[in-house]
Structures
1.
Amino acid sequence: MNAAFRSLFLALLWLCSGLAGAGQVLVQGVSLTRMQPGVRVTFELGRRVEHRVFRLSAPERLVVDLSGARLRGRLPRPDVPLVRRIRDGLRGERDWRLVLDLKTRVKVKSYWRKGAGTQRLIVEAVPLKAAGRAHPRPTPVKQVPTRRGRDLVIVIDAGHGGRDAGAKGPHGVMEKDVTLAITRRMARLVDAAPGMRAVLTRKGDYYLGLRQRIARARKAGADLFVSIHANSYPRDRRVEGAAVYVLSHRGASSEAARWLAQTENDADLVGGVDLDSKDDVLASVLLDLSQGATMESSRRVAGYLLRNLRRVCKVHKRRIQHAGFVVLKAPDIPSVLVETAFISNPREESRLTEAHFQQRLARALFRGVRAYFREHPPAGTWMAQHSPRRHVIARGETLSTIARQYRVSLNALRHVNRLSTDLVRVGQVLTIPEG
Ligand SMILES: [Zn+2]
């Protein structure tokens, strides 16, 4: 670029940033103030804009959408007791969204005030308990999910890519290509399943660092991270079969320290415990606990994957393997690594390139993931709303009282439980069909 062009370019750039796009309004400041109890969020704007304020639950969030607005400057620190985290983003072409992650359910109201040469949008959130209840709430007979639960986010990671080709087979097949093909197939299956959504860490043949992969998974809000690879053992080309890995304790403990250093302010990692205010020892214990739960989930998922793989291919190791792979080290996301086959084995190398075999692997992995989440659905997800409910029969209950309680038909109840008579006994477990 020559000098004249450069200055023109810079001038244009300046103009664009100054105007913030045609018809857009700059949010000149956002501030949080502590209320007793609750929080007040104040937005300073050049003029009033269309806005929307609403809450979301599981986790509790307060969302403010400002139409045609852009933020200038930074978000405030979330140092108000009720607020766990503050973040923002663009919604579509025009709208700006602010999200507060909250520690409890709130009641919200919003109103405009005239500021000094500005317009102020004020949003107040008060904890529900403190908001006071003129009338006691009616006792809910049962929880009826009114809003559709969120989708599970399955992050699928194609091993290697770009200049990192991974292992190479005797006939030149590259690990990076087969892993991408399998992840794409698996993603299609996940996306087609209700209540699940796939996110690929890489969508093409390019290099991606291991920690970038974890970062992408965290950004996507992953419920699970599955890394797909192909094994290699050139010294003995007969070695074959799949294996599933989870993080080893050794890898976990050193990494916990690393994460701790990097993210001491990120309370999200330990489920909302504010690490900042705790001393280092306590903080590392908290992080360990958080990772302990994640590792337990990882091991469970790995078990489901292994069982499903065994139906479609040979397995090299019949048990779950433990290793210190970097990609498995996100302390807050259950993570597994799958070695689908041995690319160093000429027969498996060729099968890995076959659409049919790739699809079989992808389906086995997808089924394993789905089976795991059906049994262990996180709260607030569509899967949690639709996983089979169970009812243990208590004294005095009959089939028809149970049918009424869950608002299902007596026939449906009989049918799913394969009952030939309406006699039930105390302690008997019934599956409750969807209403
Ligand atoms: Zn690999």
2.
Amino acid sequence: MDVKGQVALITGGASGLGAGAARVLTKAGARCALLDRNLALAEELASELGGMAIECNVVDGEAVEAAVDKVVATLGAPRILLNAAGIDVAIRTANDKAPHPLAEFERVIAVNLTGTFNVARIVAHRLTSAEPLNDDGERGVIINIASVVAQDGPIGQAAYAASKAGVQGLALPMARDLAPYGIRVVTIAPGMFETPLASGIPQDWIDKIIPTVPFPKRWGNPLEFGALVQQIAENTMLNGEMIRIDGAVRLGN
Ligand SMILES: NC(=O)c1ccc[n+]([C@@H]2O[C@H](COP(=O)([O-])OP(=O)(O)OC[C@H]3O[C@@H](n4cnc5c(N)ncnc54)[C@H](O)[C@@H]3O)[C@@H](O)[C@H]2O)c1
């Protein structure tokens, strides 16, 4: 689809990768709705970009329904959904003192996996009745964010890796479910990108990992991530797949 003039709904759009994508899509002519639990940050970016900000927890079904209705009423149907809201924890499965707290496992699954599906199902439903955009009958694209952690499985990442492997698993069945409506589903698996979420990673781990990135030997920039989001939106043949954007890194233990 031509991104110009389209509405993009970006969860977690106030920060990091979501914010990077919002900048790129706005520059390409899209209008962005930033849905985030951090309203102050979302408003700051929305006023800079000329988009709209909505406070919402992606796990809350009713709140997401209301937020999507607000976007449709204010900007129009979002033809691009980027599910970028996410959280991380680093806890081993068990040690000699305690097992992994179950509540922490459930919290990560809730935001990263259930939250992603929650927003996707509601936006997809709204799009089923939208006008097709082109001769292919395309109505929209849903872009979910997994992580290379889903495949590489580093230490302390059981909850996060499981949540992101779940997001990877959504791509093909959702693409097949939504194909009759011309809605594509693509997953991105980023490697190491410099964002506030990544700033929670211990420095000694970062000092070990960045030199193992084959090329380029540095953090990814959220604008490079945003460029991939734009390409996925524009390229109708991308569907039902997960794309790694990682400088060829493979995270060991
Ligand atoms: N930064 C990386 O290196 C990296 C690598 C792989 C995957 N990812 C994934 O990319 C996504 C974005 O990460 P980021 O690095 O930009 O993080 P970030 O912390 O900079 O941004 C995440 C945003 O999501 C929002 N958010 C969190 N929980 C929410 C909820 N329940 N409801 C609504 N908003 C919520 C936060 O307020 C924040 O604005 C996450 O899913 C993350 O797991 C990041």
